[in-house]
Amino acid sequence: MPGITLAFILFALVVVTIGLGVRIVPQGSKHVVQRLGKYHATLGPGLNLIIPYVDTVAYKVTTKDIVLDIPSQEVITRDNAVIIANALAYINIVAPEKAVYGVENYVFAIQSLVQTSLRSIVGEMDLDDALSSREMIKAKLKAGISDDIADWGITLKTVEIQDIKPSPTMQHAMEEQAAAERARRATVTRAEGDKSAAILQADGRLEASRRDAAAQVVLAEASQTAIRKVAEATQTGELPVVYLLGEKYIEAMRGIAQSQNSKLVVLPADLPAAVRGLIGSLKG
User: Fold this and answer.
1) According to DSSP H, which parts of the chain are helical?
2) Contacts (Cβ under 8 Å, ≥6 apart) of 196
């Protein structure tokens, strides 16, 4: 009976020893092995053998790309504007032993490094440049951080600026500024419209005055011509004069008849005699 118990214990010990010595590392991971408390080796994916009780797997590190969320933070630009910015960093651990032994917490370290670099980069830019230069900020971030984290066996695949926007107070001020600018442009546009309308109206009056003056000249010339022709006609007898005066006399009577104050118009029965009377009064 004691022999069976001892055999069972030895068998269990062998099974445990084999279990401790065989390490299967899944794809996408690496294991850091310590021997007696000191770094010994890094196990890659697949079947690996270590010395039981002497070697231990101290860290299991993924070799897949890791996405780090960089929390939002307030950043002050060169022109003292406060903006809110956050980002995403994509990293990959290429040397697990450096990552676990080089820094206490590489996730927190990289997040802090990105935040510090982001504040430094945006702090050298004006507000308008910061809001419109994501690609430039991204490039500077990547260039500034890659060298720092390389010593930890980590590569920065890329960093993306997720949000970069004015703080609520600054956004409210910008909205008021934009509204004031739109109001100013509307006032200028309205004033320019009034100015153009006034100029066009003045041009219209000027052109109308010129045409009225030209028309008066034409009428004057026509009157001059008519007077000359009438004068020439009177040399041949009084009939043309009687005709013209009779025409004007009838037009005058028509105007009087159409007047609202005139209810009754009496024409002379002998119109030519009346006209000759007018000629006689003019001669007298």
Assistant:
1) 2-21, 96-102, 106-123, 127-132, 134-150, 168-234, 239-258, 271-283
2) none
Indicate the burial class of 85 (C-beta count within 10 angstroms; 0-12, 13-18, 19 or more).
buried
Which residue type sits at 102? G
| Cβ(73)–Cβ(122) below 8 Å | no
Pull the structure tokens for residue 141.
Answer: 């971030």
Would the pTM count as exceeding 0.70?
no
Backbone angles phi, psi at 56, to 5 degrees: -135, 145
- Band (167; pLDDT cuts 50, 70, 90): confident
185-196 tens-digit pLDDT: 999 999 999 999
Residue 250, pLDDT score: 77
CB neighbour list of residue 256: distance below 8 Å, 6 or more residues apart = 262, 265
Residue whose C-alpha is closest to residue 30's, from 18, 39, 38: 39
CB 259 within 8 A of CB 253: no
